[in-house]
């Protein structure tokens, strides 16, 4: 059996949108995801980071085919998800689940916690009485079996997210896509949820695609990091290489915004401030998409799009003038 569980190759997702009334009714294309490629091994966590609107969530939804990719290939456990018919895809989805950002909106307020957790088992036609499985899952995520008869509004945000995690675990998946799973929670609660993810990974051998914009959170949980900007991956590599020796200017800017707990170090370190707004994905810049905000941009950056290249620090980045 190969160590590689998920392989994404040249994933593209474009959305067609109508222009404003004053501009006519002609449709335009939003390039949400452009030629994204990465892989995740069994029992590994890949952190997918970037600003809001960079395409991170769209990548996750395309992998699960919650939305259909425009082009590209997604292989899960050696099988091409794009070529699967509905019944085949439905069976494969037992092995792939998602935990959404908002733990309240992702739970049906009219269903008890036990019913919500049991729902995947019912949908997938798993036979038998599901109560024992529900109780086992509740205890696995740090909740009580008594919680099964309660409704989502009776729980805190952290508890609701644990319920969502229990539901995602119901079918014993090999891969879980975590879409900003702690961003809606208080900082005091985030650490408990992150520790839960790590414990579950050790016990069950699950792989994670951890989508986030908070780099300090990603560093805590991820084995590898992929940085996205305006629909493209600009840097990817193992966690320590990316955090300790960022080679793309955008990665360096993101890391400089992460606060340091030591006041002395915080006062002495230099910040990289990005100027200007993120360009529209309907009309991305020519060449390097980051050039309009990059302090190192030169003529070649507008004329030629950089490709991901291996750097001396072992990660790959797409930049004509990488950081040393």
What labels would you give this structure?
324 residues; alpha/beta; 8-stranded mixed β-sheet
SSE blueprint:
Blueprint: E1 4-18, E2 27-41, E3 45-49, H1 56-64, E4 71-76, E5 79-80, H2 86-92, E6 96-99, H3 113-123, H4 131-140, H5 157-169, E7 175-179, H6 187-204, E8 207-212, H7 215-221, E9 224-229, E10 232-238, H8 239-244, H9 249-256, H10 263-268, H11 299-303, E11 309-310, E12 316-317
Parallel strand pairs: 3-8, 3-9, 6-7, 7-8
Antiparallel strand pairs: 1-2, 1-4, 4-5, 9-10, 10-12, 11-12
Helix pairs in contact: 3-5, 4-5
Measured by DSSP, the beta-strand proportion falls in: 15-25%
Total helical elements: 11
Largest sheet: 8 strands, mixed
Q: Percent helix among the residues?
A: 25-40%
Order of helices and strands: EEEHEEHEHHHEHEHEEHHHHEE
Strand order of the largest sheet: 6-7-8-3-9-10-12-11
Q: What class, by secondary structure content?
A: alpha/beta
DSSP summary, beta strand count: 12
Q: Poorly predicted ranges (pLDDT <50, ≥5 residues)?
A: none
Average pLDDT reading: 91
* Shape verdict: globular
Using only C-alpha atoms, the radius of gyration works out to: 21 Å
Cα(first) to Cα(last) distance is 38 Å
